[in-house]
Design a protein that fits this description.
heterotrimer, A mainly alpha (about 290), B mainly alpha (about 300), C alpha/beta (about 425), A: about 290 residues, 15 helices, disordered N terminus, C: about 425 residues, alpha/beta, 4-stranded mixed beta sheet, 3-stranded parallel beta sheet, 18 helices, 14 strands
Chain lengths: ~290, ~300, ~425
């Protein structure tokens, strides 16, 4: 169809994104943006609406007067700072534990001296754990946490969330450790470094990207966790997800404060993700590609 | 899948290896192995937590009851419909979106970062937000649809529609997930294929259908499997949006297990349901893996 | 000389110690946690917590949950012997279930000479007394009633046929005005059906636990419930109490099926929250055969596993005292459980007074045995499926009947326990 010259071919570049035709692409992109951005706008605008305006039929698209009252309300009446503190503690500590223990275990699995069967058991177990919904072990876990005197403690949720995220972290880190060049490892072994020294000084710096990616995934997952947060907390350790569900009561539905709480739940994760999207994407891609 | 380095290592290393895996083993023991085992044990009993006097060993009766329970069948049916619908929609639209954002320029990169927001939102928050928007009278969705001449729809109260509303919300959250993963896969494709296509002057559609789709199919299959399995774990959204109603129109397996286990404290029965669930899911996952492996072989 | 010195020192020390002891508040340094339903009851408790701390020195932490979650939290905590709560407030329908895990208050009542005679006796039988023990003191007495527009309705009908005739007259969808405001969510709606079934003479089971749900009364009440939806906003099936109460307060409905004490009464005459100020009143449900309606009553008691039972008992006495019940009524629309408070002039002249008449007519609860909650779920699902046309009437009735029979076989009531509910 075209001449064999490279330059003219480059000018008629193959635009994959037009695979359904140019008009279709424009429509899809516009609809996509609208469908994602509008609910977010709705959430934010509702959180600044005054009381008469958020429970109104027909709904008010552009608030006539904005007020910060809803945010004040959730701080004063709804324990926002407690919830924020708890969510933060849970997410941070879960991430630290999961990434630390997970990478240690992955390293040992790849470069250590564990029996072959160990690896099969782990792989088999992680597959099973992916299969069942968390609710399945809720009551036994309740008993165990209670007998460990850990009810309504942030520590209990850190424990559970670590457990939920370990499979993915180990799966990913194993992949990253396998990709790391073995020669460096070999060299340090010949130099007389033992496993721990090699882990801390040699290999870990090489897989930093992996650690960051898995750390981010774990942070988001534990920040958003709901079910066990509801079951294992009473008052002191309630994170934001439980607080926002608490709006659905038999009393009047207060959408203003509810939306404000929603903004607070969503904002930190969005900020982190935007700051580190490349690592985030590489993390979940690695998960699927190696799955 | 795990390649091991077989090189002689000192006994210290052997001890350290075990030390390294110990924390994980302990955590999993406490939070996963023991509870599951306990659940399995309890599934053979009639055991209601607040009626200890009624405890009795009933063998497989719990399992048999499951199959004759009207609600289990309903939950299962709802869950399967939900899974198939949401996975299909998410795949279709997700792949399309991935393709449309496959050019690498500033615009598409910005789009991708916006695209990722729904999937990192807590499902509880997303459910609450959509519940506000889908209200028939006060919700903004019906308001906007009104401009298109569409009558107000009872999204969450009409049993025929409620399930699709949940599909809608789930798709909103996870189409980005599919799109991002497929996009990475497209970007990871060796350029030699595309160059060859350019030389032949093939149309974008042909390239997609003949080259991109087959090559990314292993990833697409895995993504399908992940979404399919997750569809059977949906809980948070339903909890805040419909509580399983109206009637039992949006009752799914996780909410059903929750109802039996936490609400009624029928630990025996809910454990049995859970065990069956795990078995069924494992079979499904195994099938997906086989499909993907076969696809990989075919691609050589 | 020396002995006198020593005695003086000792006396001074004694005085100091005595002074300190008297100055100390009774429970200084202690703290209790109390569990309430997230509504007016918890709000009142939070108000009193500060005062309680000021008088007794004990800190009070009020924990509250919405209805659905409350049952789960309370049930799990009590049945697993958790000592997280020092006082809990079961709903009367959960009494039988939780009684084994609750402390018998009889000794404390006798020791402190609590004025038991002032509590409405019929109420205490249904809410707080079980199995010859006192597991709680009832503090609210709310029969389910209707709220209606006084400017549109002169007199509330006494039977369901008249009721529907009234609806026909008032219903005006073209003007976005509906005869009825109903919460269609299944956990709210089933109670509405129940009260109709009982008020026309139906029962789930007789006193000896023989299941009698399959009856003409059941079928008629199902028809009535279904007919209601024709006169309500099409969005009603997805409404909870907040939405349907809001519809009434916005002036879009003539009659509201609700628990008026939760939202309509506190907000009805507040111009900021209501467009029907001065135009509403409360009435019992249509009498039909016996006017029996559903009782919502909460009692407060002490779990066996609690660690601070003495402080909890002080809290209970305070919360159920005459002064607090009056304050609960005037400020929070919590209906009192004390006869003397019902007879006070401020109460008699209040818009909520018709509730007294309703409770005299009869307000009962369904099964209070452990199987009761599961039985209610059968009713809940069945009625909801029938109203939304997913099941036909035969299937709905059979589902409830089969469910009840299975429950009574698997989880039979304890020996000697009769069905005092319906």
């Amino acid at each position: 169809m075209g001449s064999p010259h490279a330059s003219s071919r480059r000018s008629r570049d193959l635009q994959l994104s037009n695979f359904l035709g140019r008009p279709a692409r424009i429509v899809v992109v516009v609809v996509l943006l609208a469908v994602i951005l509008f609910p977010l706008y709705w959430l934010v605008s509702n959180s600044f609406k005054q009381e008469q305006e958020y429970y109104h039929s027909p709904p008010i698209m552009f608030p006539t007067k904005i007020t910060g009252q809803n945010f004040v309300d959730i701080v004063v009446n709804r324990n926002l700072f407690t919830g924020l503190k708890n969510s933060l503690l849970i997410a941070v500590f879960t991430t630290l534990c999961t990434v630390l223990f997970g990478s240690l275990a992955s390293y040992a699995l790849v470069n250590g001296m564990l029996p072959r069967r160990m690896k099969h058991i782990f792989a088999w177990w992680f597959l099973i754990q992916k299969m069942y919904p968390a609710i399945v072990v809720a009551v036994p876990v309740f008993y165990i946490i209670r007998s460990l005197q850990m009810m309504d403690r942030v520590a209990a949720l850190v424990l559970m969330n670590t457990s939920f995220n370990l499979p993915l972290v180990i799966l990913l880190m194993v992949g990253f450790f396998q990709e790391a060049p073995f020669e460096v490892e070999e060299q340090s072994m010949l130099d007389g470094c033992n496993l721990m020294q090699r882990y801390f000084y040699v290999t870990t710096p090489m897989v930093k990207a992996g650690l960051i990616a898995t750390g981010m995934l774990t942070f988001v997952a534990s920040w958003n966790e709901f079910l066990y947060a509801v079951i294992l907390t009473i008052v002191r350790a309630k994170p934001l997800t439980v607080l926002i569900a608490g709006f659905i009561t038999d009393k009047a539905l207060v959408w203003g404060p509810m939306a404000a709480m929603g903004c607070v739940v969503i904002l930190p994760v969005v900020v982190i993700m935007w700051a580190m999207q490349r690592d985030f994407i590489s993390g979940i891609s690695a998960g699927a590609l190696k799955g | 899948m795990l390649v091991t380095r077989t090189l002689y290592q000192s006994p210290t290393d052997k001890a350290l290896s075990w030390l390294f895996v110990m924390p994980v083993i302990i955590i999993l023991l406490i939070t996963a192995f023991i509870p599951l085992g306990w659940g399995l044990y309890l599934s053979f009993f009639r055991y209601k937590l607040n009626m200890p006097s009624a405890t009795a060993f009933i063998g497989l009766k719990n399992y048999l009851d499951i199959f004759s329970d009207e609600l289990t069948i309903r939950s299962l049916r709802n869950n399967v419909i939900f899974a198939m619908l949401s996975v299909s929609i998410e795949l279709l639209i997700g792949v399309t979106v991935a393709m449309m954002l496959s050019d690498d320029n500033r615009f598409t990169r910005r789009l991708v970062s916006i695209l990722m927001v729904p999937m990192i939102i807590a499902p509880v928050a997303a459910g609450t937000l959509w519940r506000m928007m889908l209200d028939r009278t006060y919700g903004v969705v019906n308001f906007l649809l009104g401009f298109l001449g569409i009558h107000p729809i009872l999204w969450l109260g009409d049993p025929k529609i409620a399930l699709y509303s949940i599909v809608l919300v789930d798709s909103w959250q996870f189409i980005p997930f599919v799109a991002v993963l497929v996009l990475s896969s497209i970007k990871a494709m060796p350029t030699s294929f595309l160059d060859a296509a350019r030389v032949d002057g093939a149309s974008p559609w042909k390239v997609f259908w003949r080259i991109i789709l087959p090559i990314t199919s292993p990833v697409i299959i895995i993504v399908a499997m992940l979404r399919f399995i997750d569809a059977f774990k949906v809980f948070d959204t339903i909890f805040v949006m419909t509580q399983g109603g109206p009637g039992n129109a949006t009752e799914m397996l996780p909410t059903y297990i929750y109802r039996q286990g936490i609400k009624f404290l029928n630990i025996g029965y809910s454990s049995a349901t859970a065990i069956l669930f795990v078995i069924a899911m494992s079979v499904i996952a195994w099938s997906f893996q086989r499909l993907r492996d076969r696809q990989l072989l075919r691609l050589g | 000389m020396k002995t006198r010195k020593i005695i003086t020192v000792l006396l001074v020390l004694l005085l100091v110690v005595a002074g300190a002891a008297i100055g100390q508040k009774k429970f200084a340094g202690r703290s209790i946690r109390v569990l309430y339903f997230s509504a007016t009851y918890a709000d009142a408790a939070k108000e009193y917590a500060k005062e309680f701390e000021a008088t007794t020195g004990a800190k009070v932490e009020v924990v509250d949950f919405p209805y659905l979650t409350l049952y789960e939290k309370m049930g799990l905590a009590l049945s697993s012997g958790d000592s997280s709560y020092d006082a809990v407030t079961p709903a009367c329908q959960w009494d039988g279930e939780f009684e084994p895990f609750m402390e018998d208050l009889t000794p404390m009542i006798q020791k402190d000479k609590f004025d038991s005679a002032d509590i409405i006796p019929g109420l205490w039988q249904q809410s707080g007394k079980w199995n010859n023990r006192i597991m709680g003191i009832p503090f609210s007495n709310t029969p389910q009633t209707l709220a209606y527009r006084t400017d549109l309705i002169k007199q509330m009908p006494k039977n369901w046929d008249d009721f529907f005739a009234l609806c026909d007259k008032l219903n005006d969808p073209a003007k976005n005005f509906y005869a009825l405001a109903i919460p269609g969510l299944k956990e709210q709606f089933d109670g509405l059906w129940m009260m109709v079934d009982w008020s026309i003479g139906g029962r789930w089971a007789d006193q000896n636990w023989k299941v009698t749900i399959d009856s003409p009364e059941t079928r008629r009440s199902l028809d009535i419930a279904k007919k209601w939806m024709k006169y309500a906003d099409p969005a009603a099936p997805a409404w909870g109490l907040p939405e349907s109460d809001a519809a009434f307060l916005n002036g879009n409905a003539a009659i509201a099926f609700s628990w008026p004490t939760l939202s309509i009464a506190p907000n009805g005459d507040n111009p900021e929250k209501s467009k029907v100020v001065g135009k509403w009143a409360i009435a019992p449900i249509p009498y039909e055969k016996n006017g029996v309606t559903v009782l919502s009553s909460w009692d407060i008691g002490i779990p066996k596993a609690a660690k601070n039972k003495d402080v909890a008992w002080e809290w209970i006495k305070m919360y159920t005292s005459k002064e607090k019940q009056l304050n609960n009524f005037l400020k929070y629309s919590i209906l009192p459980s004390r006869i003397s408070v019902w007879q006070l002039p401020q109460v008699k002249s209040n818009k909520l007074y018709p509730h007294w008449q309703a409770s005299q007519q009869g307000a009962v609860i369904w099964w209070r045995i452990p199987a009761g909650t599961m039985a209610e779920t059968y009713v809940r699902d069945s009625v909801s499926n029938y109203i939304t046309d997913q099941w036909d009437q035969d299937k709905a009735v059979k589902y409830m009947e089969d469910g009840f029979n299975k429950l009574l076989t698997d989880y039979p009531p304890a020996k000697g326990v009769m069905n005092t509910g319906r």
